[in-house]
Design a protein that fits this description.
This protein is α+β, with helices and mostly antiparallel strands. The chain folds into 2 domains: about 220 residues, no CATH class; about 250 residues, no CATH class. It is built from 15 helices and 12 strands. Strand 9 and strand 10 form a beta hairpin. Helix 1 crosses helix 13 and helix 11 packs antiparallel against helix 13. The longest helix has about 55 residues. The chain is rod-shaped, with a radius of gyration of 36 Å.
């Protein structure tokens, strides 16, 4: 009780000195509250966001590994390089379905597409590019239309996201074996086609290979933008997977090999696209490791635009978190040094008080504990006030800092775009695209952990500052102090 009573009297008696120390602790508390809140928010935003999104991953050809194998130490053979690239094949459906049985894969979607030309219908736009046939040579004719099929309706992202919508007719059964087809509104208007009409389409390389379809539905696209070098999406038609497989099998069975300086097959080339739906980032990492144990060749790599987009959207917040962490450490170190210096001067000014207390029989550790208690009271009081103020100003301050980070990143992005002639490089996603909206404002998370860390910071500052004072107290000799006083 004596120590507590003396500590309280000392605080009220020397209020000017203690107020100065309190102001320093107050600034440390406010700054630490803002910094810890930003760190906690960034951590929870990343954790919640990664759990909330379904990651769509694909297995693609690893072009970096492909070129690395061909280069070596000598100058690469250009012909061999082109042949190696042309011979690179994607994984077959059976292998992909084996990988899809992994416990980390939530869903497995795949689609197949092939090209046909119209017998009595015209395309909305005509592709001028020749299709490459991995079976050998270049096809003589390009197709006018793309027929696509999906194994599940959930894989038809254009319809799920509202980009495409059936406006006439109905959607065919995905498991049907009948030649039912879904065409775009542009094709229907251009060729005066209605639901229930029949379309004839032909293999562009064999005029006798004709397929007949019944139009069961017409869809409209809300987004009619066509990327440069891509076919117009209006020329995409949808059929069932069984129909695609039947057309491909028939075309392969009745293929004609044409010799005209090189071998060219008339069979239709089927393109397979697949995607694995993973629950979260942890599942993505585990699935990537499992693929290696299953013997996946280095020529293939697992990638996800969703994951890359999500990580890019967190860049400004992560940069702000790093800045807040650095600022927090600077404030803590500088504040601790100032408190240590003030505490040293405090002990030296009260040297006579130490001598008197020790002379009346109070042990030095007990005297030192009084100084520790004084600083602990001051630290607790002003750290609490600093936390309250820090919590109230943390949101506007953090959003202002985040705005600065956003502006800096956007300026960097515009600088890169200007270097590419004002256009975003096709292999470099912009962090400001609609599909990858960055975090523009934050609602800080101030929970028990933040205030717990603030309490620990206050205790640490008290112990560090008091340790120096305790060392001085233990070194003092009461008789010498009193003798010098007289």
């Amino acid at each position: 009780m004596l120590v507590i009573r003396n500590a309280i009297k000392s605080i009220t008696r020397s209020w000017g000195r203690n107020l100065l120390m309190g102001v320093i602790v107050f600034m440390i508390g406010a700054s630490a509250c803002v910094g810890l809140a930003i760190k906690n928010t960034a951590s929870q935003a990343q954790e919640i966001g990664s759990d909330a999104i379904n990651i769509t991953a694909t297995l693609d050809i690893n072009r970096d590994a492909l070129f690395g194998e061909m280069q070596g130490g000598e100058r690469p053979d250009r012909d061999a390089m082109m042949e190696n690239i042309a011979g690179a094949q994607g994984l077959d459906l059976e292998t992909l379905q084996t990988y899809a049985e992994s416990e980390y894969v939530d869903q497995f979607y795949y689609s197949k597409s092939l090209g046909l030309s119209g017998v009595d219908i015209e395309p909305y736009t005509t592709s001028q590019e020749n299709n490459f046939n991995p079976g050998g040579g270049m096809m003589f004719q390009s197709s006018d239309f793309t027929l696509s099929a999906y194994n599940q309706s959930a894989a038809m992202t254009d319809f799920i996201e509202g980009i495409s919508q059936i406006t006439e007719g109905v959607m065919f059964d995905l498991s049907t074996t009948e030649n039912q087809i879904l065409i775009s509104n542009e094709i229907a208007i251009l060729n005066d086609v209605n639901v229930g009409d029949t379309l004839e389409m032909v293999n562009p390389n064999v005029e006798a290979e004709v397929y007949t379809f019944e139009v069961v539905g017409i869809y409209t696209r809300t987004n009619s933008n066509v990327q440069r070098g891509m076919e117009d999406p209006a020329n995409t038609m949808y059929v069932s997977m069984a129909v695609i497989d039947a057309i491909a099998d028939y075309s392969k069975t009745n293929e004609v090999v044409i010799e005209n300086g090189f071998s060219s097959s008339s069979s239709l080339n089927v393109t397979l696209n697949s995607s694995f739906i993973l629950k979260d980032q942890a599942a993505y990492t585990n699935f990537e490791q499992e693929l290696e144990t299953l013997g996946l060749d280095d020529s293939y790599v697992l990638s996800s635009t969703d994951l890359n987009a999500y990580e890019s959207s967190l860049v400004p917040l992560n940069n702000l978190s790093e800045f807040a962490t650095t600022l927090l450490w600077v404030v803590l170190v500088v504040g601790a040094v100032i408190l240590v210096v003030l505490n040293i001067f405090n002990i030296r000014e009260r040297k006579y008080e130490v001598g008197v207390l020790c002379a009346i029989g109070i042990k030095k550790p007990k005297v030192a504990s009084q100084f520790v208690l004084e600083l602990l009271i001051i630290t607790t009081l002003f750290m609490g006030l600093g936390s309250v103020v820090g919590a109230s100003v943390s949101v506007p301050v953090s959003n202002k800092l985040l705005e600065t980070q956003m502006s800096s990143q956007q300026n960097q992005n515009e600088f890169i775009n200007n270097n590419f002639g004002g256009m975003t490089p096709p292999d470099m996603g912009s962090p400001f695209e609609e599909t990858n909206t960055p975090i523009e404002s934050i609602d800080l998370v101030l929970d028990v952990s933040v205030f717990g860390q603030l309490f620990l910071i206050g205790v640490a500052l008290t112990l560090i500052s008091s340790l120096v004072g305790a060392i001085f107290v233990m070194r003092y000799e009461p008789l010498k102090i009193l003798a010098n006083r007289t």
